[in-house]
Design goal:
The protein is α/β, with parallel strands linked by helices. The protein has four domains: 108 residues, Helicase, Ruva Protein, domain 3 (Orthogonal Bundle), CATH 1.10.8; 183 residues, Rossmann fold, CATH 3.40.50; 139 residues, Bifunctional carbon monoxide dehydrogenase/acetyl-coa synthase(codh/acs), Chain M, domain 3 (2-Layer Sandwich); 227 residues, Bifunctional carbon monoxide dehydrogenase/acetyl-coa synthase(codh/acs), Chain M, domain 5. Helices cover 35% and strands 14% of the residues. The protein has 22 helices and 22 strands. The protein has a six-stranded parallel β-sheet, sandwiched between helices. The protein has a four-stranded mixed β-sheet with strand order 8-10-13-9, with helices on both faces. Strand 19 and strand 20 form a beta hairpin. Helix 3 packs antiparallel against helix 4 and helix 8 crosses helix 9. The longest helix is centred in the N-terminal third of the chain and has 29 residues. It is globular. It binds iron/sulfur cluster and nickel (II) ion (NI). The site of nickel (II) ion has 5 residues, from loops.
Length: 726
């Protein structure tokens, strides 16, 4: 390491050590040595100190040994206690910086200092486990820590886009004169968050520890290395965690110190600044440790090369980027070129199997006006017809293939796909349209992806996209009976008649702890997967997201709890859900990802429940519209009293049957009520209630609980005859 770099590292590290020492002194005085310290959501105390020093710091007094060790590393108090491998003074400085930052941050948490809005601060073990899966299955090849703002907003956007295209997670850190890349991306309207792989962590340099002690926990969690076994932990980071740093502008001393810490972990640093001296010897890092790349267009490729990240870029011939990183991206109203469906117009997607000679592989046809011919203010009708042929294709695979459209189309940058079948809602952004994206590219994507992922059953794919209203109406007519037939196949079955349910974990890409348990009488909450689909999907892809679940020993038949299901859900929810009841809203209900067609929520005043559909935007008697409700119900957690469901489940015999079933239902949006009236009426009749559907309130009757209550009393709604819900 050059003298120049080394001195900068030591100066920077001393600064961090001094800061930690002062914070510690203040905490000792204000809170005392016995005060507990620690970060939220981790089993590893101060993870960096835990891994490198074997220290389990639980109290303020435990921090003293860490600070003393830091001081010895940066020669503030020369001692002989250098028991980390002697890595050169610069690298010792890096270690000191990390340990000292961690102490400072732990004290910040102790003092309840606020984390800046939209920044993560400390990153929990749960996120580590979740992203760990993505790192293991290759969805995410590595991560980048970005320090400072880029010279221009455009370079900032280009840089994160390049990372997103490769599904590399970008952490945003540090500021220069108060400005950080986060600010630049906000100004450019770039969506940030875990879903889009762009994660602001903190605006200062000290926050860098949150990224590095998160990575270090990989060694403790996935590597199984013991705390204090610093050599193995460091080696694990170098060999298994593909991370690197990108710095913008001249590197100040404190960045040098953190950078040295990153280098100790095997993470190289790439600087865009012409005056940065390079540190080329390899050894600590796999390749060079600190290099320069002043051409911004080469920054990301260069980083990937230096870190040895293995990236799989999806080759799909469309004018916008295509990667898993874009799956969770939203297209906001202001940014959209045009939208189809949702509640604004008719839209449908329909996949059907055909004879081989009826399908011309790769043919994509667009009938009607294209994206750029549409005014952004009108929502157009849209029909997407996918016709597939293949010797192994069967009609009962249609539903499963069709459900893939959600992921396939969402992965294109600037395309937002929500819901399915005739509920489809699609938006395309202005940027995508300007880049040349047109409706035919939907077909390009679908053709490529179906052959890539389902090549075993599909040999040919052709796609027709309709935007003319009458053609869309025609497609809707054709598709409707097919959708009904898919739903009907399972209708005669009961949960008791099978000993196996199916799981669905497709949505773990959004909600990592979420598991749908699909039974004959309860379809997946997105409405797209029923039990037969689960079975067929498992047949197509035995190691895929739909696995058989043996019910096993019954625990509580009324609540729908079985030992086998509990075990399965526990094992596949990252151990987040221990108990699961299939038929209860109040006790261990199913978790919800975000795709629910309907949210069922209790209305305690009325001793009943309401259902709110995605399309309904108005007020509800529990005082929250769908969007707010969705925010609190989704994400893969159990929320007693609230559950996301598929529309068809409302008329199932198992609909909240532990709480009395359908007679609990006191309010629905009118549109939903009418759409499923026949099914609801049939089920109510079976239970001995006449004219039940007319006793369900809707928004034309009341949207507040008093109004609903008055109505229910008037019509003598059966909810009042049931046991109290709470
Ligand atoms: Fe699967 Fe459930 Fe997601 Fe539907 S909502 S795709 S069933 S995990
Ligand atoms: Ni989902």
């Amino acid at each position: 390491m050059s003298r120049e770099v080394m001195s900068a590292v030591i100066r920077g590290a001393r600064g961090f050590v001094r800061e930690a020492e002062e914070a510690l002194q203040a905490a000792l005085e204000a809170k005392g040595p016995e005060q507990e310290v620690g970060f939220p959501g981790t089993a590893f105390y101060l993870p960096m100190a835990c891994a490198l020093m074997g220290v389990e710091a639980k109290k303020v007094k435990d921090l003293e040994a860490i600070v003393e060790h830091c001081k010895s590393l940066v020669g503030m108090e020369p001692t002989e206690k250098m028991w980390l491998p002697y890595l050169g003074r610069g690298l010792d400085g890096g270690v000191a910086a990390l340990l000292a930052q961690e102490v400072t941050c732990a004290i910040r948490y102790l003092n309840e200092e606020k984390i800046e809005a939209e920044h993560t601060g400390f990153i929990s073990d749960a996120i580590l486990r979740e992203l760990g899966i993505q790192l293991v299955d290759g969805r995410m090849p590595g991560f980048a820590a970005i320090l400072g703002p880029a010279p221009t907003n455009k370079i900032a956007v280009d840089t994160v886009r390049e990372l997103q295209q490769r599904s590399i997670l970008a952490f945003l850190l540090c500021n220069t004169d108060g400005r950080s890349m986060y600010d630049q991306l906000v100004e450019e309207g770039v969506e940030m968050g875990w879903n889009t792989y762009i994660v602001p962590v903190g605006r200062d340099t000290t926050s860098a520890i949150y990224v590095l002690n998160w990575a270090m926990r990989g060694a403790l969690t996935f590597g199984g290395h013991k705390k204090g076994d610093y050599e193995s932990c460091l080696r694990y980071c170098r060999e298994r965690i593909f991370a690197f740093g990108l710095t913008f502008g001249p590197i100040p001393d404190d960045w040098y110190a953190v950078g040295a810490g990153a280098i100790v972990m095997g993470f190289p640093v790439i600087s865009d600044h012409a005056s940065t001296p390079e540190v080329r010897p390899t050894g600590v890092t796999t390749y060079e440790a600190l290099i320069r790349e002043t051409d911004h267009s080469k920054l990301v490729p260069r980083a990937i090369e230096v870190r040895g990240v293995k990236v799989k870029v999806e080759e799909i011939d469309i004018p916008v980027a295509y990667a898993a990183a874009f799956e969770g991206e939203r297209v906001r109203r202001e940014d959209m070129q045009t939208q189809y469906g949702g509640k604004y117009s008719n839209a449908v997607e329909f996949l059907r199997s055909r004879e081989s000679d009826e399908v011309e592989d790769g043919r994509v046809e667009v009938i009607g006006p294209d994206l750029d011919e549409a005014s952004p203010d009108v929502s157009l009708d849209l029909g997407i017809l996918i016709e597939v042929a293949g010797r192994k294709m069967r009609p009962d695979f249609e539903g499963i293939l069709e459900r893939q459209l959600h992921r396939y189309l969402n992965n294109a940058m600037g395309v937002m796909h929500i819901a399915q079948r005739d509920q489809l809602w699609l938006r395309v952004s202005k940027d995508a349209c300007e880049a040349g994206f047109r409706l035919k590219h939907l077909g390009t994507i679908l053709h490529a992806k179906f052959l890539e992922e389902y090549g075993g059953i599909v040999d040919k794919v052709q796609v027709t996209v309709y935007t003319e209203a009458d053609k869309v109406a025609q497609l809707l007519q054709e598709a409707g009976p097919a959708f009904d037939a898919r739903d009907a196949r399972v209708r005669g079955m009961t949960d008791e008649s099978v000993d196996t349910f199916y799981s669905c974990t497709i949505c773990q890409s959004y909600a990592p702890n979420h598991v749908c348990v699909i039974t004959p009488e309860r379809l997946g909450l997105c409405g797209a997967y029923n039990w037969l689909d689960g079975q067929a999907s498992h047949e197509i892809n035995p190691t895929g997201p739909n696995q058989p679940i043996k019910k096993g020993q019954p625990i509580d038949p009324k609540r729908g709890e079985w030992k086998g299901v509990n075990d399965f859900v526990y094992a596949h929810s990252n151990r987040a859900t221990e108990q699961f009841s299939a038929y209860s809203l109040m006790e261990n209900p199913m978790t919800s990802c975000g795709c629910f067609e309907v949210i069922v929520a209790i209305l305690p005043e009325c001793n009943g429940v309401i259902g709110v559909s995605r399309e309904y935007q108005g007020e509800t008697p529990i005082g929250m519209p769908f969007s707010t409700l969705a925010g609190s119900v989704g994400g893969g957690a159990q929320t007693p009293g609230f559950v996301g469901v598929g529309r068809l489940y409302l008329s199932s015999r198992k609909f909240v049957s532990a709480e009395g079933g359908l007679p609990r239902l006191v309010w629905l949006p009118k549109e939903l009520k009418e759409a499923i009236r026949p099914q609801l009426e049939a089920r109510a009749k079976e239970m001995g209630f006449e004219n039940f559907v007319d006793k369900i309130a809707d928004e034309t009757i009341a949207t507040d609980s008093d109004g609903v209550m008055a109505f229910l009393e008037k019509v003598e709604h059966p909810a009042f005859t049931l046991d109290p819900l709470m």
